[in-house]
């Protein structure tokens, strides 16, 4: 028994000297495993990153700028090779890719902010491929004989942890064999003595049982000497990548399991109950946290400590658990932090955590679109091939099907000469089209399958918008012909990609007090401000004393979501002027546009979806800001249904929308004389589309 105890103690004395432990003889340094492979991969990744990798396919010598495939000479996407490394599959986001490359070289933290689906998580995974694999470590937790609630921690090169644990298990197995052999000899002697000499059978059996329990109880001490391998990187081909998005405190920071048997020799040793967190598993690698603002303040504070110190002890996260009494020695947390989120993520993010990231790294805003060039179109074709290959269940796409997807990428960009970088949504369209083709047992996914997918893969907002249009037709709420005073067909968007017609009505009544403009329809702050801007035009324009009148403006059937944005400004102005002057408005006309206090028509967002909504509702003419003319990319089926009229001034809007030549001409001339040169042609405000589409 004394020999066994000495052996156990010697193991603890050797914890900080792994090379001297006799029980680990013959164990090789696992850190050199696949070293040559790691060096070879590292040489390739730092110089060639993502979109810099050319497509290995036939390209025409003289590429036509209008060629949707950018000169690619293919019949199907099966002819486009897909890069093996994730880092080479990144498309677009040149600025973000450059930052990731620099951050990987210098081990800097990064915060990426942008729209969902623009490649934040893909860039984070790609970064882990750029980090050297040979620096990886395994982490073991040992029993502490001096304080059972303070387990010891030891790090060794990757691959060596498994071998150390096996060596300890083998040593424990040998000790247990010796104990068992000794136990059975003693039991045999006791039973023999009680049966033959003392002739006390019952006493002998009782003594044998006591000896058996004593040996079993004693063997638990040797089993407790086996370390707990909490981080094992033996099979890791590249630096670890841990996605801790939405992780609770235990999953992020580590935890100690609760032990219901806390005494009497039945308890589990504290070091065996230690569980690593994502911050420990990502040591020497990448920790990715999307929607960083969803982490509670306490977790963000602990995360900040782990970043600053490079190590973090594991303890029980529940105050009522027996694990709360356990706290390990510090465990390495030398990771690169990549935080991500939408713009609102910065509002609830702990300022000190953001300061740590910014002070030791970079902040990046992700692009939503990219310039439409032949080279980029070729990479979009490769993107389709990547989606098919990565899914593994989809038929490859024909040349015409890829062209239709590139047209859809243009349309979703919302800007002329650009392609969308929201690849997750575009990838969803690829998968739906492939599923349709697979359901038909087709060998290839064709353009017709993509067109069907566009109809089937409509967003919830699009489906609701279509239902609104149908219901309004049923109840005759959509008016698309004739002339009505004080009523205008406005246009708005729901979500990001669903247009809807939004009627606006105006009425002028005698006032019981000081005159005012009253707007109803769940207007939000920006919409209310736009109504006030319109009232400035009306006051300057009208010959009547508005102090004795109330102007009522109603946004019809806006629902609970209300109206947000200023794109109904020209709609409100037209409705109010019509009501003041008693001049009817052509109901076959729909319109959208913002309005300055001087009468300039300013650009808005979502014009493509708004025009399509007007066409679905039966309108034949759509008025849009002249600055948005370049952003119009409606589907072919709607091009013959509507006339699109770009305008720069409110006078042009009235010229198109109002009925009656003498009255209208007099009204327009009066408005021009009041507003002056601000309404001269060619001086309208030009510029990029407003980020507020409604």
UniProtKB/TrEMBL annotation:
Keywords assigned by UniProt, alphabetized: ATP-binding, Cell membrane, Hydrolase, Membrane, Nucleotide-binding, Protease, Serine protease, Transmembrane, Transmembrane helix
NCBIfam families registered for this protein in UniProt: lon_rel
Chain's role: ATP-dependent serine protease that mediates the selective degradation of mutant and abnormal proteins as well as certain short-lived regulatory proteins. Degrades polypeptides processively.
Subcellular locations according to the entry: Cell membrane
GO CC field: plasma membrane
Bilayer topology annotation: Multi-pass membrane protein
Domain of life: Archaea
TM ranges: 182-215
Catalytic residues in the record: 567, 610
GO biological process: protein catabolic process; proteolysis; regulation of DNA-templated transcription
This enzyme's EC code(s): 3.4.21.-
InterPro entries xref list: AAA+_ATPase, Lon_arc, Lon_proteolytic, Lon_Prtase, LonB_AAA-LID, Mg_chelatse_chII-like_cat_dom, P-loop_NTPase, Peptidase_S16_AS
An example molecular function term from Gene Ontology annotations: ATP binding
Species per Swiss-Prot/TrEMBL record: Haloferax denitrificans ATCC 35960
Region feature Disordered, mapped onto this chain: 1-49
Protein name: Archaeal Lon protease
Lineage of the species this protein comes from: Archaea, Methanobacteriati, Methanobacteriota, Stenosarchaea group, Halobacteria
Domain Sigma-54 factor interaction: 195-360
Residue span(s) of domain Lon proteolytic: 482-660
KW Protease (keyword) present: yes
Family affiliation: Belongs to the peptidase S16 family. Archaeal LonB subfamily.
Start-end of Acidic residues biased regions: 16-28
Oligomeric form and interacting partners: Homohexamer. Organized in a ring with a central cavity.
